[in-house]
Amino acid sequence: MSILKFLGLDRLGGSGGAAAASAPDTIRKIVDALDQMEPERARYIASFAYILSRVAHADHEISADEVRAMERIVRDLGGMEEEEAILVVQMAKTQTLLFGSTENYLVTREFYKLATHEQKMQLLESLFAVSSADESISSAEDAEIRKIAAEMNLTRSDFNQARAEYTRFLEVLKNAPEPPPAT
Q: In this predicted structure, what is the pLDDT of residue 14?
């Protein structure tokens, strides 16, 4: 399965079809590069990007900081050029906005099948990195990450380990009242 088909963009002409041939050079190069990936690797990166956008959208808003964090993570993860990572993140965001409520679990289960425990932990840490990119992790984002961790059969300890570095960004803790002074 091509990354474009996975993300619902195979209607653009699929792998090197007529639509891709008539696209601007930059788009054609990106489509060709993504289509050259091994199918399993493409599914892995596509599902990783989708899950990142799932968390970024958990609070019904995807900030510019979150988008940049997703692009950086996808670029590093996939060994992609910046333009390719931008396209993958944009496609994932579009799919999340259009089909998120029905596809979230299915995509996470696909990732679960493809990933090792170490890769699942890398995703979990990346989810916290994206949600904290705007220096705030909303309760909705935190709950969505917890839900994703459960969908991937990660333990509470795994969740807490990944979350530990990002607790200072949790809105719920930022808004907590100060404890009374000790007497």
A: 42
Give the C-alpha separation, 107 to 170, whole Å.
26
Task: Decide if 20 contacts 63 (C-beta within 8 A).
Answer: no
| Per-residue pLDDT tens digits for 24-70 | 555 555 556 667 778 788 788 888 888 999 999 999 989 999 999 99
Here the CATH number for the domain that contains residue 147 is 1.10.3680.10
Q: 83: Cβ–Cβ under 8 A, 6 or more apart, which residues?
A: 26, 29, 30
Residue 128 included in any domain: yes
3-class DSSP assignment, residue 53: helix
Question: Is 27 domain-assigned?
Answer: yes
| Domain hosting residue 101, numbered range | 3-174
Nearest to 34 by CA among 10, 56, 53, 52: 10
CA distances from residue 114 to 20, 48, 119, 120, 134 in whole angstroms, order as listed: 28, 10, 9, 9, 30
| Distance, CA of 138 to CA of 62 (rounded, Å) | 12
Mean pLDDT of 161-180: 80
